[in-house]
Specification:
extended, mainly alpha
Length: about 60
């Protein structure tokens, strides 16, 4: 999905973000995602799969 460029502007202060263990907000390339801890784990691989193969068939996760 593509969008116009923008800077993320959180509602929380830097101190509040740090209190939740959030160290930075920024855009990542797909390759960069493979070298950092993400939630969900393996987000870079999941993104690569999505780009390469398209979305998986939808399923009801119960939410």
């Amino acid at each position: 999905m593509q969008t116009d460029a923008f800077e993320p502007l959180p509602d929380w202060s830097p101190q509040q973000l740090a209190g939740e263990g959030i160290e930075e907000l920024r855009w990542f390339t797909a390759d960069e995602l493979d070298s950092v801890v993400t939630a969900p784990l393996g987000l870079g691989s999941l993104l690569g799969e999505l780009v390469e193969d398209g979305p998986r068939e939808a399923f009801d996760a119960g939410f």
